[in-house]
Amino acid sequence: MSPVEQLLVLATGFGAGVLSSTVGVASLLSFPVLLALGVPPVVANVSNTLGLTPAGLSGSLGYREELRSQPRIAATVLVTCALGSIGGALLLLALPPGVFERVVPWLILLTCLLVGVQPWITAWLRRRSGSAPVSRRGLGPATTVAATVVGAYGGYFGAGAGVMMVAVLGFGADLELRVANALKTLCLAAANVVASLVFVLVAEIDWPVAITLALGSVIGGYVGARVGRRLRPTLLRAAIVAAGLTAFVLLV
């Protein structure tokens, strides 16, 4: 890479790190930049995953207080997303490029709309059932399976995976949006770490790109977490929905 390209990738890593810890659509920024620089699609996807892994780790550090408030759910999210990402990483290497390109935009659209209406649906369901908040009991089987599927998607490609995870947690647990966002960041971190280990062993990686992206994303991830935990729930929810709609428009 030329010095200008290095600077561009570094800035992209920072921006993607911020997005990863706030609205969860980091790859929508970083992946197109790598393609524009001439990196082949699969190599770009792999290098992007490695480059954004530090963002998830530093973002989780920034959300440590929120994660400590729900240790049982955090542990479940960590394990399920890590296991799911193994399958997703293997799918990326085994399937033809773009095999899910027709399904993913509509899945992102559905989940971002669910994030938008979740408070009203949850309140309605609670009034009808009168049940105790799910967060006191941990995640149920259906939510655990859904979290595993999100982890698999995170390992495969990941654009919009954060929006999906917020929707899953919104309906599967009675959590503050700020806490759900922290758990989403942890999920993406777990998925990226495990997928990166798989890629290091068996995939082609553009190491200069991955390392430069990582240097920017590790700072952006922490900054994004500090911003995200201070945003009002309504504003954060609106930003997540807007990001999901943007992802749909760009991918459809």
UniProtKB/TrEMBL annotation:
It is found in: Cell membrane. It is a multi-pass membrane protein. The chain crosses the membrane at residues 7-31, 73-94, 106-125, 145-171, 183-203, 209-227, 234-251. Keywords: Cell membrane, Membrane, Transmembrane, Transmembrane helix, Transport. Pfam families: TauE. One of its GO terms (cellular component) is plasma membrane. Its main location: membrane. Belongs to the 4-toluene sulfonate uptake permease (TSUP) (TC 2.A.102) family. PANTHER family: MEMBRANE TRANSPORTER PROTEIN YFCA-RELATED, TRANSMEMBRANE PROTEIN YFCA. This is Probable membrane transporter protein. It comes from Nocardioides flavescens.
